């Protein structure tokens, strides 16, 4: 694939953040994780360079992003892309409506 393309773009995640409920079982959590992030585990397992950037926000004000992957050895390309996107979208200064720590 990367012989023809410089980067691969997928949603990260393809849906808005799910509500976590008390008492959820491990099995429910695993199933939720699979549906919530179907694209990123491939690159986590392969060790291929990838990054997720919060480019969009849900109506509830939660971040959702874009996931970019690149060929081995091209991490600089991803860092440069993320820097340009952050400059354009300015997500670092955007604060969530509710904070918890």
From TrEMBL:
Q: Which InterPro entries match?
A: Amidase_dom, AS_sf
What is one Pfam family matched by this protein? Amidase
> Signal sequence span per UniProt?
none
Q: Which residues form the Amidase domain?
A: 2-78
**Origin superkingdom:** Bacteria
Q: Which residues form a coiled coil?
A: none
- What name has this protein been given in UniProt? Amidase domain-containing protein
Task: Read off the lineage from the record.
Answer: Bacteria, Pseudomonadati, Pseudomonadota, Alphaproteobacteria, Rhodobacterales
């Amino acid at each position: 694939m990367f012989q023809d393309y410089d980067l691969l773009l997928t949603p990260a995640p393809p849906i808005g953040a799910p509500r976590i409920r008390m008492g959820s079982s491990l099995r429910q959590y695993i199933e939720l994780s699979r549906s919530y992030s179907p694209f990123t585990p491939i690159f986590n397992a392969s060790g291929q360079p990838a990054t997720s950037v919060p480019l969009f926000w849900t109506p509830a004000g939660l971040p959702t992003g874009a996931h970019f992957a690149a060929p081995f050895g091209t991490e600089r390309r991803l860092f440069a892309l993320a820097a340009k996107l952050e400059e354009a979208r300015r997500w670092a200064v955007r604060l969530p409506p509710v904070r918890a720590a």
